[in-house]
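Assemble and predict.
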Amino acid sequence: MKTAFLKRMIAVMLAAILVFSLASCASGQPASQGSQNSTGTSQNGDTIELTFWYSFGGANQVANETLTQQFNDTIGKEKGIHVTAEYQGSYNETTAKLQAAAVAGTMPDVSVVGTTSMGIFLENGQLAPLNTYVERDLDTSDFFEGLLKNTVKDGTWYGVPYLCSTPILYLNTTLLEKAGLDPAGPKTWDELAEYCKTIHDELGIYGLSTYSYEWFLEAFMLEYGITMLNEDETACNLAAPEVVEIMQYFKDLKDAGYINWAPSADEGTGQITADYTNQTCAMWFSSTSGLSTVLQVAEENGFEVGTCYIPAKETYGVPIGGCSLVMFESVPEEKREAAWEFIKFMTDTEQTAYASKTTGYVPLRASAEETDTLKELYAEFPQYKVALDQLRDYSTGRPLNPNYVECSYEIMAAMDAIMVNDADIATTLQQTAQKVDAILNQ
Amino acid sequence: MKKGVVALACPRPRPFWSRTREKTKTAGRRMLPYLLIAPAMVVLFVFLLYPIGYMVFLSFFEWNMIKPMEFVGLQNFITMFKDPAFFQTLLNTLQYTFFTLLFGMGLAILAALFLKKNTRLNRFLQSTIFMPYVMPLVSVAFIWMWLMDTDYGLLNFLLQTLHLPTVDWLGSTSVAMYSLILVSVWKCVGYNTLIILSAMQAVPNYLYEAASLDRAPARRTFFKITLPMISPSLFFLTLMNLIACFKVFETVNLMTAGGPVNATTTLVYSIYRDGFQFYKLGYASAEGVVLMVIIGICTLLYFGVLSKRVHYR
Amino acid sequence: MPKPIRSTARWIVSIAILLVFFVPVYWMFLTAIKTLGQCYQTPPSFWVSSPVWENFVNAINAIPFWSMLKNSIIVTLGVLLCQCITVIPAAYAFARLRFKGQNVLFGITLATMMIPAQLIFLPVFLMFSNMGLINSYASLILPHATSAFAIFMLRQTFKQVPEELIEAARLDKASQWKIITRVMLPIARPTLVTLALLTLITTWSDYFWPFVMTTNNDVRTLPVGISMLRIVDGGVQYPLLMAGNMILVLPVLIAFFVAHKHIIKAFTYMGDK
C-alpha cells in the first residue's frame, strides 16, 4: 500500500511540475519584447525610453550616471530620448544577467560588455551590427587601433569601445629615489629584476607586488612576441618555452624575496592595494583604470606616483581591457536610431575625456588629447599621458573565443600553482595548455 | 517508519474530528488538512520543486542559454564523472562539511559545559558567542577577509607579536579551506552552544544526583548521562549544520573565489560558476542533480533515525 | 584542582572567549573610522584619536541608500507576513491532523530546506520575467513566502501541546480556528518569536536573491547596495567597505543587544524539545 501511495504522490508531483512549466511556457514569448521599462510608460508622447546597463560601483558608477544624465539633459531633451542607467555588478555578473535577460526577453537596449565577454555575445549573434551608423557618423581613424580589436570583427562594428584600459607599471617614485634608482622606472626585464633587487636590498621592502592574473600574463607574452592564443583561437601557447621563461623569471624573484605574489582571488581581497598604500612595495602592475584612486591614495599617504610601460623583453606590448558599449539585436528598429545616439554621445571626444579623467581609463580617441579637460590633466598629472602613449603605440586585443572566460580560470590556477604551491613550471604549463585547448574547442 | 510518525502525531486511537457523523461535514473536515497546508505547498512547489524539476530536465541537455537546447542524454553525467576536478569539488565539500561539523559541535559542547552554571557572567558570555549568528554572512565574510589579510590583517599581526610564523590564510592551497571552516565555525558555534546548553539544562537533576551518590567521575557522568540525554538535540544540530554546509556559497565566493588552484571550490560554487560564468547550463544542472541526490539521502537518513527514536518521547 | 587555580583558569577562558568574538566586530568598527593610510599601518593602531566619520557619509552617498533601506524594510516585513500566513496552518496540519500523503509531503518539505538558491534562481527569474514581475517586490517576497524550517520547528512545538488542552477546547465546542488561535499559538509563542527573528535576520541579510532577481535599483535591498562598495574596478577600499558593512550590521546588532535576553530565551526554548 505504501508503495502505491508513494507512486501516486510522485505522479501528483510530476503533474504539478508539468502544469507549472506549461504555464510559464504559455505566457512564454512576452508581449513586451525588447526592453521592459521599469517606469512602465515605455513611450509617452514622443519620448523614447531606453535602458542602459553598466558595471561596477565607485568611479565607474559616477562616470556612467553623470554621462547618462548629461545625455538626457542635452541631446536627449532635444531629440526626445530618455535613458535610464542601471547598475549590474561586475563585468562577469553583467554578462550573466544579460544572458538571463535574453532568455526572458527583458534585455536592455544598450549595455557595457567586458572585453573577454564580447566573444560570448558574438557567437550567439546577439549584437546589432553598427556599420551603417558608424560609417555615417564616426571618424573611425580617430579611434586608437588597439581598442578596435575586440569590437570590430571582419570589418563589422559590433560595438564601440567605451571604458578601456591596459595594464601598466605603477611606481612609487619617492621610494625609487630613496633607493637611488631612476624614477622613470625600468625599461627592460633585466632592469626590472635589478630594480627589485636594489629596492629589496636598500629599503627592505618588496620591489614589486603583483598577483596571478591572466591579463598580466597576456602582457608578458606579448613582450616576448607571442600571443596567448593562436591566430584562429583553437589552441593556446601556454606550453611555449617563452612562458616557462616568464614564470621562471618571476618565480626566481619571488623565491629571492624581491617581489610579493598574491593568489588570484586578490582582485577581491586587495593585497596589492594594501602593499602600495602602505609603501611596502615600490612598484606594482595594475590597470590604468585605477590611476585616479592611486593618485588620491598617494597624496593622502605622502608619496609620489609615477607610471611607465610594462617593461619590454623583445618588445613592448599590452592587451586592452575594460568594456565596450553594444546595442542588442533585440532592440526594435524604431529605437535603434535613439540607442545609437546614446552610444555615439557616450564615446564622443568630450565624454571620453571626462570619463578618462574621472576614472583613469584611457581616452578612446586621438582628438580627446586636444580637449581642455585632458590638456589640463596631462599638464598636472603626466602619469595619465604614459597610459595613453602605451595604448596608442603598443596595445592589441584580447581573445574572443567564447570559452576564454573559462580558460582564464585554468590559467590563473596554473599561475597560483606555480607561484604559491611551488609546482613544477614546465609540467604545470603543459597540463594547463592541454586543458585550455580542450576548453577552447568544446 | 510511517507507523511511528503517525503514532507520534496522534496518540489517540481516533482523532476527535472524525467522531461527527454528518457526511458533508466529514468531507469538509477531510479536506481541511489539505487546505491548511495548501499555501505553503504552493510556494514550495512553484519556487523550489518546479525549479528543481527544470534542473533535472536541463541536465540531459546542452544549453548556453541562447542557442537552442540540444539533447545529449547522459553525456553531461559522463563528462562529469570523468572529470577529476569534479571529484575534487566533492571532496572539498565533504572536507568543509566534516570539519565544520566536528569543530562546530565539539567546541559547542565544550562551551556548553563551561557555561553550564547559570551565572550573570555566563549568560553574558552566551550572548557574546551567539552574536555572530545574527550577523549577515556577507558582512562576516568581509570582516574575516580583512582580518586574514596576509600582510596587514590582524591575525598575522598577532602571530608576529607572539613570534610565531605568519600564515597565508586565504592564499595557500593547504590552509585556505581551513580558513573558511574557521569562519563558519565562528559564525555558528554560538547557536550550537545555545541549543546544547538548553538541552543540558533540561536533563532531570535526579539523574545527576544518583550519579553523585555513586561517586561516578565527571567524565563518566558526561558520557553516561549528559551525552545520551542531549543526543536528540545533537542530532537536530547535525542536520541543521549539514544543510548549511552543503549550501555554502557566500564565503567561498567572496573570500577565495574557489581558489587557490580550486582548493576551495565547493559543489554549489562550482554549479554557479559553470552555469553562470561559463554558460554550461546542462553540465551545471548535472552537478546540481548530484547535489540533490546527496540531499535526498540525508533526508531519508533523517527520517530513518527519527522513526527509531520515537520511543524517546 | 585547587580552587584559586580553577577560578583563574575560568577567568582566562572567559576573557579569551570575549576577545575571540568581540575583536572582529570591533575591528570592523575601527576600520570603518580610519583613513585608508591608517588602515594599512603596521603595527596597526587599536584606537583612533580622530575618527573619520565621513566614511559613513561617503558610503551612504555612494549608493541610493534611503530607497534601498525602504526596500529592505518592505521586503523583510512582507516575507514575515507571508510566512505567518503559510507556516502556521501548515505546521498545525502536520502536527495535529492526520491525512493521506502527510509523510510524503512532510518529507518533501524537509528536503526543500536543503536547496540552495544558486540552484533554482534561473527558472524562477524566467517565470517572473514572463509575468512581467522582475523588479517588483513580489519577485523578492513570494519565493520566500514560506519556510520549510519554520514549518518543521513549529510542528515540533505544536506536537508538545498536551492533548488535554485540546480536549478541553473541543468540549467547549471550539472550532479548529479557535483551537489554533486560543490554544496552540499562545503556547508556541516563544517558538514563533524565534522564527520571526530568524526570518527577519535572514531576509535582511540576503544578498544573492535580491541581486539576481533585479535589474535596477527600484526594489533592491541594502545588501546589494553595500556590495556596490566592494565591486569596484581596481581594488577594494576597506574603510569604505567596513563603513557600509557597519550600516548593514548595526540594526541587527542593536536589536540583538537590546533584546538579547529574549532572543537567547527564545532560542533556548526551541532546542528544548
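Chain C touches chain B through 94 residues (CB under 8 Å).
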